[in-house]
Amino acid sequence: MTLENCAPSSAKRSANTRSGWQTPATQKRRAKRRSCPLDTDELAFDLCWPDAGSTDILADVKVLPRPEVILTHESDLDGLVAGLLLQRLARHLFGAEIPLEAFHYNNWRLREPREKSGWVCDLSFETRLDKADWVVIDHHATEAQPKNALFIHDLGKSAGLLCYELCKEQGLGSPELDRLVHLSNVADLFLEEDPDFVPANDYANLVKTYNFWNLHALIEGQLERLLNHPLLEVMAVKRRIEDPMGLEWSKANVQEISATVGYVDTVVGNTNLIVHQLLEKQATKYPILMTLFRKANNTVVVSLRSRNGEALKVAEKLQGGGHANACGATLPRSVKNIPDAIDYLRFVLEVSPKKDAPLNSLEGLFAGLEIKS
């Protein structure tokens, strides 16, 4: 049940704003702590929405439960921004330093929500997160509808922006954070028409280049230190010199994975921008383009891009996730290098595994293959 269907007319919210569901028991318990009226006959929802014409932010963020942990996405700037903002919000509301954990999609699927309460950001809502005193703040498409958890969701805003709006409700905004969150939002939603699109991608490329936890350590968890960071000069040089060279080289080095998926080899430049330009210019015959990256721990990450929503289905087949046109997955541990990854992906995407066949190793994959007729 969505808020549009259950809220009184005076509390109706606009389209593309937050969605929240609570059980009647939870609503009764929390209504005692709130100043807003609650219809105890229908007990439809636990949120107060502002009057028409005002901001669509949660009117009383204090209803958020104290989390035991904050969980975020490890792969991009949006996850870093959202996670650190939620830590700041929890520190303000509860006077406590809540642990922050970050995950790539495949590892995230293995992480059970064992705590009694938690906040999740920039990771898609799933039924396993539908627990009382859990909060999910996200902007990815999902078919799951929460019945117990609080779900704050907007497809048109990055997770970092959604978290920042909650922070601003508590007086935690600043001109520095305004700027940084804006840049993160532009990069994550790939808003090409925004005048800050180029510098925004330089900021986003910091996480891609130096990785989540390295950057976290470098700024000591203080987001404001990212603004005008000296490493941005490195990103600007790479953009001016490497990107044009990388685009021309990659255009001539696209390998077929399946009839609809092409692997883009890269040597220099911003991989995301290179792939984006290949898709925009229709420089290849493939509607889905993927890149591969081998991490220091020998795991291989696949990134997928498309223009019409095709990429996400491929990512989900690889036990990954993300946006319709920008998503990814981590390949099984048995895939140690890029050539193995290409072989693995060709088998997975060109053949159908038999029912219940495990795909967590190359041996298991090959043992369960059923060639398409």
Question: In short, what is this structure?
Answer:
By secondary structure, the chain is an alpha/beta fold. The chain is built from 13 helices and 13 strands.
Describe this structure in words.
The protein has 373 residues and is an alpha/beta fold. Strand 8 and strand 9 (300-306) form a beta hairpin. It has helices at 3-6, 24-31, 77-94, 105-110, 159-169, 175-188, 197-210, 212-218, 231-251, 271-280, 311-317, 338-350, 362-367; strands at 70-73, 100-103, 118-121, 134-138, 150-153, 254-256, 261-264, 288-294, 300-306, 321-322, 326-330, 352-353, 369-370. It has a domain at 244-370: Roll (Diaminopimelate Epimerase, Chain A, domain 1). Mean pLDDT is 81; it is low at 1-62 and 352-373. Helix 3 (77-94) runs parallel beside helix 5 and helix 6 packs across helix 7 (197-210). The protein has a six-stranded mixed β-sheet with strand order 6-7-8-9-11-10, with helices on both faces. Strands 2-1-3-4-5 form a five-stranded parallel β-sheet. Strands 12-13 form a two-stranded antiparallel ribbon.
